[in-house]
Hints:
Low-confidence stretches: 1-10
Strand content: under 5%
Helix content: over 70%
Number of domains: 1
Radius of gyration: 20 Å
Distance between the termini: 36 Å
Shape: globular
Mean pLDDT: 83
Amino acid sequence: MQRTANPINADPSFVVDLLTTLQKERFSPRGWWRFIGRSWERSCATANAYPTLKRSWLYTTLLIGMLAVTIIATSLFFEGTSIALQFLPGFVFCVAWQQSDLFWHLGLNRHAQTGEILPKVGAANTLTLLRGLSASYLFGRLIGGLTTPSWLALLVFLCSGVVTDILDGQVARATKTQSKLGQIADGEADFCLYLAITFILIQNGTLPLWIGIAMLLRFAIPLLAALGSYFLFAHPVRFGSTVWGKYAGLAQCLYFLVLLAPPQVVFVKNVVNLPLLVVTLVLLVVAPVAQIVENVKRP
Length: 299
């Protein structure tokens, strides 16, 4: 029988204790080593305390692994050995990091309302991980120094990015499996995918550098605020979605679709490009500010 105690590594006091200890050791290499080691021990303890959840993580990792192998095999077949070997190291690293990060945060797989541990990673989180897999593929190409054509980036963005971004929230609500883990995974997947698409657009000369930097600040500002609160003040920050954040994400998504659209619709691109860019930039400024204000209001 699975235990019903609270997930061990989700204890806020434990997190604060870790961060306080890291501060006292002045962020030294030894301090970081102890911080990572104790965090990993707690993650393993949580996984062992909830064997059903641990087994679900294993099955999910096997699924993601099989899909990753399929992507590698497809690249070998269509692009050849040289291209596949170039993107392989970065791709494998990103996939391994994603699944390790999932294991690290299993203790946060708790129901949003009741706080009870959810016994499985769930379909919603798996959809989010598929978006992360897409981002890993694009990052693998970027790390390997490969150019990604717009049609390929559009295909990945539409099929594995936009579709899963719409479905994961719907599935979580339908199955009543909303969790803190899902929030974190969703934010990380969005950050990685949009970051990869932004770099590809800059690499292809489609997106000016200054606009790309402005877009990345949407994620960077709340991230830096969270890291500063965690490591400087030992105060965990709760990050959830806001209305402005959703509008900003929608506008940025539409703008990326316009930039990635094929040349056959160049007339439409010329008409909507500038107005959509202005709206997107305004929302990208408002969204992180609203996110920070929302967290400051929370106790």
